[in-house]
Amino acid sequence: MKEIIEFKSISEYFHDEKDGLKNHTERIIDMQDDRFKTLLRAWKEKDYPLIRICHKDLARGTVLATDEKRDTMDSFVRDIQHIALWNDIMSITWKHEEEESQGLGTLH
Q1: What is the CA radius of gyration of the chain?
Q2: What global pTM score does this model have?
Q3: 92: burial class by Cβ within 10 Å (0-12, 13-18, 19+)?
Q4: CA angle at residue 77 from 46 to 60, to 5 degrees?
């Protein structure tokens, strides 16, 4: 079972992220946060976990126990496709569910 890394998203971005209009997030790396330790290890090994994005204002604090890719009103889970580093910023890109079901990759 793949590990799931969870981040919260504000209303301004959440719906575009869930709908596939925005398939990435940028975060300041905090080495005191185990999520970034896991993501850096994944970046080195090119073996990416799943990412769950939760709506900051709607999230109820429930966590799925499996890697089930199930969208809810307040969260969604996607496969991480790429991690890029720049100074103390980590850019995390995921596959939108339609790309996954159609076998499409991200356009460059």
Answers
A1: 13
A2: 0.78
A3: buried
A4: 135
Which residues are registered as beta bridge partners of 50?
Answer: 4, 79
Where are the chain's structural domains?
A: 4-98
H-run or E-run covering 86 = strand 75-86
Alpha carbons 49 and 81: distance in angstroms, whole number: 9
pLDDT, tens digit, 9 for 90 and up, residues 44-77:
999 999 999 998 876 554 444 444 556 667 889 9
Is 4-98 a domain of CATH 3.40.1350? Answer: no
Looking at residue 72, its amino acid is T
- Identify which of 86, 85, 97 has the alpha carbon closest to the alpha carbon of residue 21: 97
Residue type, 95: K
